[in-house]
Amino acid sequence: MLQQQLQTMLALQDDINTLVNENWRAQNFAWYRAIWVESAELLDHYGWKWWKKQQPEMEQVKLELVDIWHFGLSLELQQGTPEQVAEKMQQQLSEEAPNAGDFRENLEAFTLKTLTTKQFDLVGFAQMMADVELAFDDLYRRYVGKNVLNRFRQDHGYKDGSYLKLWAGREDNEHLADVAQSLDASAEDFSNQLYTALKARYPGSAKDLA
C-alpha cells in the first residue's frame, strides 16, 4: 500500500513538472531553495513569536507540509524513476516510526539539513509529520488533491491568465475539498476521478465531457 501510494505521487509529480517544463530534469531547478522558503512560511503558521499570543494554525501547517512534499518528490525524482525512488523512500519510511517531538526544533533541523545537503530530508519530514499528527494516508489524500488542482489549473489557462480561480462564489480549492470528500481516496484512479469531478463543476467545461 505504501509503495503504491509513493509510486502514484511520484508519477503525478513527474507529470505536473513535465507539463510546466518538458525538460525539467535537465534544468536542475533549486528545489531545495523552495523547500527552505516554504519552511519559513510553515513556521509562521505554527507560531514562534514569544512576545504575542499565538496558536498553531494546524490546517495551514499541514497544507505547507504538502507543498514541501511536492518539492521533496521533485528532488527525489532527479535521482531515478518513480518506481526506483518509491522503493528507496519506502525503505526509509518503513523504519521505526518517530515519536512526536518539538516541532519548531525539528523544522529547524530539517531546514538546516536541506540547506547543507541541497537534498530532501525524508526522515526529518516524517518526524515533522509525527509532530503535527499528519498520517501518511492524509498526506497522500491532500497531496493528490493539490496535484490534481495544479494540473487542472495548467490545463485551463493558468499560464495565460484566463483561468478562473473563483467559480459559483467559491475558490477552486473549496470545490476540490468538496469533491475529495465524496470520493474513495484508496481507489487506484482517485486522481482521475478528482480531475473529472472538477472539470464537471468548472464553468463552461461540462459540455466538454460529452
How would you explain this protein's 3D organization?
The protein has 210 residues and is mainly α. 28% of the residues are buried. The two termini are 34 Å apart. A hairpin with a 2-residue loop joins strand 1 and strand 2. The chain has a two-stranded antiparallel ribbon. The protein contains ten helices and two strands. It folds into two domains: 137 residues, all-alpha NTP pyrophosphatase fold (Orthogonal Bundle); 47 residues, no CATH class.
List the helices and strands and how they pair.
Layout: H1 2-20, H2 24-27, H3 31-46, H4 58-77, H5 82-93, H6 103-117, H7 122-131, H8 136-155, E1 166-167, E2 170-171, H9 172-181, H10 190-201
Antiparallel strand pairs: 1-2
EC number: 3.6.1.23
Protein name: dUTP diphosphatase
Enzyme class: hydrolase
What structural keywords apply?
mainly alpha; all-alpha NTP pyrophosphatase fold; two-stranded antiparallel sheet; disordered C terminus; dUTP diphosphatase; dUTPase/dCTP_pyrophosphatase; dUTP diphosphatase activity
Specify the CATH architecture of the largest domain: Orthogonal Bundle
Q: What's the total count of β strands?
A: 2
Distance between the termini: 34 Å
**What is the global morphology?**
globular
Given as residue ranges, the uncertain stretches (5+ residues, pLDDT < 50) are 206-210
Rg over alpha carbons: 18 Å
Find the structural class using helix and strand composition.
mainly alpha
GO molecular function: dUTP diphosphatase activity
Keywords: Hydrolase
Protein name: dUTP diphosphatase
EC number: 3.6.1.23
